[in-house]
């Protein structure tokens, strides 16, 4: 049995509205599990139900075999890190971290050891006497993480802990969080609506949409093998091919017209900017309508007979710029085309 299980969780806020609609997940010991989805999809509601801040309308939650819904929130041994750092301004860094230990009757001598350990893990040892007001956002969030860890929780929950930080710090701190989690080997559930952050930090990602789960899988599964059109478009970019004679001709040439898909799509980095029949793809003509140079990559937009396509080119050389209106050849590799049915579910394409 999994370490944490949530089964058929529903949360009905009003008669007409369900924030969670039959959500089931499992999280293993030591696993970094991420809830990813747009604003309002139910991420915080699920996290709060696990922490015990709000109860489910129906469903089961068990942690190490025990029924969590029967245990009071403060007895669940769950650490939580919030988006707004939630530090106490009148307490030093040390006392902020020690705060969580007071109601737990930890002996005084052990208290110091535990706080020192937690501060070392988040690299705040040198600042333990400081007041939070004299610290940066990133440092304040480290206090939040240390405070959640110091109780040696059985489960660590983090609700968008990095979203108030600037881009560079977010990347730094997300790697630290991942390192700390692996080091203390704790089960963690992390909430974000940032797809890149989710890909970078997670063992598994659960993509949510409108109170239900779209897909659970490794970052590679979620990005490389999206099972719904929603997942494919929310995580990364998808070119949806425009229906019409051009598309019909291409599918026929590739022996794919029998699939009967409602939507055909392909990732921008799978398209090739050359006539490369060897890949077993279709070669089309395109007119350059936009060229965006981004350093590590360039984004090229083309008008073609299967609609506007975006191509991502990695390592664009200095001479690789394209002029608007220029004609280019683009290859659509057969294996990289994804088919979706009318409900947005991924379809098998057969051979
Ligand atoms: N106490 C409440 N009463 C009524 N509706 C609520 C309540 N709390 C949340 N909701 C609604 O439930 C839905 C899910 O909210 P939730 O906070 O779980 O979303 P979220 O995925 O965390 O979004 P965000 O990324 O914006 O934080 C939203 O439509 C929200 O308005
Ligand atoms: Mg939220």
The amount of beta strand, in percent, is 25-35%
The overall strand count is: 17
**Can you tell me the CATH architecture of the largest domain?**
3-Layer(aba) Sandwich
Query: What is the string of helix and strand elements?
Result: EEEHEEEHHHEHEHEEHHEHEEEEEE
Helix run count: 9
CATH homologous superfamily heading of the largest domain: P-loop containing nucleotide triphosphate hydrolases
Bound molecules: adenosine-5'-triphosphate, magnesium ion
Please describe the biggest sheet, giving its number of strands, its sense, and whether it closes into a barrel.
6 strands, mixed
Residue ranges: pLDDT <50 for 5 or more in a row? none
> Which fold name fills CATH's third level, the topology of the largest domain?
Rossmann fold
Task: Report what the structure shows.
This protein is an alpha+beta fold. It folds into two domains: 231 residues, P-loop containing nucleotide triphosphate hydrolases (Rossmann fold), CATH 3.40.50; 102 residues, OB fold (Dihydrolipoamide Acetyltransferase, E2P) (Beta Barrel), CATH 2.40.50. Helix content is 25%, strand content 30%. It has nine helices and 17 strands. The strands form four sheets. A six-stranded mixed sheet has the order 6-7-8-3-9-10, with helices on both faces. A four-stranded antiparallel sheet has the order 2-1-4-5, with helices on one face. Helix 3 packs across helix 4. Bound molecules: adenosine-5'-triphosphate and magnesium ion.
